[in-house]
Write a structure and sequence with these properties.
Subcellular location: Cell membrane
CATH architecture of the largest domain: Orthogonal Bundle
Protein name: Carbohydrate ABC transporter permease
Low-confidence stretches: none
Radius of gyration: 25 Å
Structural class: mainly alpha
Shape: flat
Number of domains: 2
Mean pLDDT: 88
Main location: membrane
CATH topology of the largest domain: MetI-like fold
Keywords: Cell membrane, Membrane, Transmembrane, Transmembrane helix, Transport
Family: Belongs to the binding-protein-dependent transport system permease family.
Helix content: 55-70%
CATH superfamily of the largest domain: MetI-like
Length: about 300
């Protein structure tokens, strides 16, 4: 068939064929489920019954009026704060390990290693670290003389349980962010730093006026990943605290899954998912506007 076509016709046929397949997969596994999610958010479907009664905006009213649902967004704030600190520390280590440091490849591997570990395995690992009676953290604090902190229930105190959980994410993902920043730093021409040194610029000024502007887009990318990750946390509170104590560590995604699979309210869970998607788009739009404004 192709042999009978001209070159231009063959080219168009091949382009269309290779475009249709990924487009069909995208429509089937992304856009159609998304549209079905929006449709289900206007029903009271329980996930099992063939009946899907249309109830209009009732689910959305429940999401915004019930503090036990929309209020859990405040628990995600800890992950956002720790994520910002994580990026700062990642930039710091990336700058150090991009210099002529002996054994820098070993330290790069050491910092990146936590990222390749399974998330559930990491959660179980830190369950022993944060254990109140036999945990390694309290044992270390006791040996260092911090007796008042050595008996702290890191996963049982509602005041800081989310920061405790977020610190696990800090340990696991900091190396990943560092590698991204490291790749960006290595793409900066060395001549720029040499010229700055000849002009008498200090290391801090070189970082401020050469390094930061050249990795600005990478910072924007990592902040994008940080914000989306902070809003979509699920595995750590699910494994380590199961949302406790008394719901203090429940995240919005945790609440969605609980609503769908524990309470069989798929209509409300769908509405919560749509709200989460809208909120993520809104927050990222503001972030992109502010960063692009700063970049200009």
């Amino acid at each position: 068939m192709l042999s009978k076509m001209g070159f231009a016709a063959q080219r168009k046929w091949i382009i269309v064929t290779f475009t249709i397949i990924p487009l069909a997969l995208l429509l089937t596994f992304s856009y159609y489920p998304a549209m079905e999610l929006v449709r289900l958010s206007f029903t009271n479907w329980d996930g099992l019954s063939p009946d899907q009664d249309w109830i209009g905006w009732a689910n959305y009213k429940e999401v915004f009026s019930n503090p036990e649902i929309f209020g859990v967004f405040k628990h995600n704030f800890a992950y956002f704060v720790v994520g910002i600190v994580q990026n700062i520390v990642a930039i710091y280590f990336a700058v150090i390990l991009s210099s002529k440091l002996r054994g820098k490849n070993f330290f790069r591997l050491l910092l990146f290693l936590p990222y390749i570990l399974n998330g559930v395995a990491v959660a179980y690992l830190f369950a022993y670290v944060f254990d109140t009676t036999n945990g390694s953290l309290n044992f270390l604090l006791g040996k260092l003389g911090f007796d008042s902190l050595a008996e702290t229930s890191w996963l049982g105190n509602p005041s800081f349980v989310n920061y405790t959980l977020a610190s696990v994410g800090f340990w696991r993902f900091m190396g990943f962010n560092m590698v991204i920043y490291l790749a960006a730093l290595q793409s900066i021409p060395k001549d720029m730093y040499e010229a700055a040194a000849i002009d008498g610029a200090s290391g801090f000024k070189s970082f401020l006026y050469i390094t930061l502007p050249n990795i600005y887009k990478i910072i924007e990318l990592n902040l994008f990943l940080t914000v989306t990750g902070a809003l979509e946390v699920f595995d750590l509170p699910f494994v380590l605290t199961n949302g406790g104590p008394a719901g203090a560590s429940e995240t919005f995604v945790f609440k969605i899954i609980e609503t769908a699979f524990q309470f069989n309210n798929y209509g409300l869970a769908s509405a919560m998912s749509v709200v989460l998607l809208t909120f993520v788009i809104f927050v990222l739009s503001i972030q992109r506007y502010l960063l692009n404004k700063g970049g200009n």
